[in-house]
């Protein structure tokens, strides 16, 4: 038994047992210190989160102990806000970590057990007498819409007259998912550092043999490397090529690279990766760029370096616009307006990140929608959150005969009361392969 709490920033990844210790400690801290304020902000006295085995509410996984890899049978969690804080209780066939057991299953089986479980939910509600009972239903956010039709019906039937107090818990669910502890942000620095190291290794002569290796080969190498390091991607890594003589192609109103994924890497190519890993229940999402040196070159062409500087400037304009209280659409508008004033041709499509890669919180554009996102884009920015700062610029490259390059960047950032901080820095120079 470990007598000292493991330091999750010590190494990535931690052994599985220590990862579980860290995640359970975080959950306790979040229930004690984060959830009460979120429930007050949303005006919800009782939060009911329900999931069935293999059909879980996305929120449920973030409330379960680390040793629970899924719900078991029907798992019902009741989080009651009172003057003393939040009381977490479980109406479940099995004990649920630090949740108080609010029901003990009898010897009854089948429907009798199910009725007894719902009757205990009713009894708990009668005793708590909440004014507003939050449930996870939402039109705007899939991650806050986890209550199934069947469980909603059964809950409504069980509550009887108390069902009139049911309200959507969208704001609460999104707030719970998007809010990061200080230690979680510290860990995200370490996770992003690992990603940056893997990208630097992938975009090197140790992995890329010019004239033989394809972009597809590099993408699969990255995935295998993550696996070998004890972390897993949350999406298939991609690597795209751009090169002189192969102009961008239009797709859904925007210009995208046209070099096939199975194309062999050549001197003078620009490579861009998009990779993300998951560890300790948190996720990363990163895009960085490399240039393949031609014989005699020691750096990327000036035109490409100018494009990277322009992308860095768009990052600065976007982070300046990322102000708590603004909606995602307002951040998008402010960033694009500032970019246009400086003559930058670019798109901003950043998103929250945390428990999920495309996480809960304000949508800040999409690559194919730069006019704002109805619904998700109307949600406000809050501090103590993390984002994938994702964007791209288009700029002609004189050394490519004036051909336009689309240079994309994606970096992890954290927004706290101190402002925006990059998670293990950002790319300001090309990685070089040569």
TrEMBL record:
Keyword Hydrolase: yes
InterPro entries per UniProt: Creatinase/aminopeptidase-like, Pept_M24
Pfam families: Peptidase_M24
Gene3D superfamilies xrefs: Creatinase/methionine aminopeptidase superfamily
Source superkingdom: Bacteria
GO molecular function, one term: aminopeptidase activity
UniProt keyword annotations, A-Z: Aminopeptidase, Hydrolase, Protease
Protein name, per record: Putative Xaa-Pro aminopeptidase
UniProt source species: Blastococcus saxobsidens (strain DD2)
């Amino acid at each position: 038994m470990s007598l000292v709490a493991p330091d999750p920033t010590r190494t990535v990844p931690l052994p599985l047992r220590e990862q579980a210790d860290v995640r359970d400690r975080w959950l306790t801290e979040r229930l004690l210190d984060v959830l009460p304020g979120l429930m007050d902000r949303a005006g919800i006295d009782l939060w009911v989160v329900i999931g069935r085995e293999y059909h879980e509410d996305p929120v449920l996984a973030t409330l379960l102990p680390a040793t629970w890899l899924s719900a078991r049978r029907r798992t019902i969690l009741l989080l009651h806000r009172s003057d003393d804080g939040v009381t977490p209780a479980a109406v479940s066939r099995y004990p649920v970590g630090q949740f108080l057991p609010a029901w003990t299953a009898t010897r009854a089986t089948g429907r009798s057990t199910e009725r007894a479980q719902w009757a205990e939910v009713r009894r708990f509600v009668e005793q708590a007498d909440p004014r507003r009972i939050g449930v996870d239903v939402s039109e705007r956010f899939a991650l806050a819409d986890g209550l199934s039709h069947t469980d909603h019906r059964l809950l409504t039937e069980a509550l009887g007259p108390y069902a009139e107090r049911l309200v959507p818990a969208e704001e609460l669910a999104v707030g719970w998912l998007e809010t990061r502890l200080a230690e979680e942000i510290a860990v995200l620095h370490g996770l992003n550092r690992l990603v940056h190291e893997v990208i630097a290794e992938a975009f090197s002569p140790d992995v890329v043999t010019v004239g033989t290796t394809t972009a597809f080969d590099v993408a699969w190498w990255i995935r295998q490397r993550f696996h070998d390091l004890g972390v897993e991607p949350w999406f298939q890594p991609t690597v795209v090529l751009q090169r002189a003589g192969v102009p961008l192609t239009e797709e859904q109103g925007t210009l995208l690279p046209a070099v096939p994924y199975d194309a062999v890497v050549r001197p003078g190519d620009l490579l861009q990766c998009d990779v993300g890993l998951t560890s300790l229940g948190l996720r990363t999402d990163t895009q960085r760029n490399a240039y393949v040196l031609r014989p005699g070159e020691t750096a990327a062409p000036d035109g490409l370096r100018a494009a990277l500087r322009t992308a860095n400037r768009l990052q600065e304009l976007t982070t300046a616009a990322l102000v708590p209280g603004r909606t995602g659409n307002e951040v998008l508008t402010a960033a694009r307006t500032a970019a246009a004033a400086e003559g930058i041709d670019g798109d901003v499509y950043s998103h929250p990140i945390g428990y999920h890669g495309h996480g809960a919180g304000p949508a800040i554009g999409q690559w194919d929608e730069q006019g704002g996102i109805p619904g998700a884009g109307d949600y406000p920015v809050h501090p103590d959150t993390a984002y994938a700062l994702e964007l791209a610029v288009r700029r002609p490259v004189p050394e490519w005969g004036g051909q336009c390059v689309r240079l994309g960047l994606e970096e992890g950032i954290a927004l706290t009361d101190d402002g925006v901080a990059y998670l293990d820095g950002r790319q300001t120079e090309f990685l070089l392969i040569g």
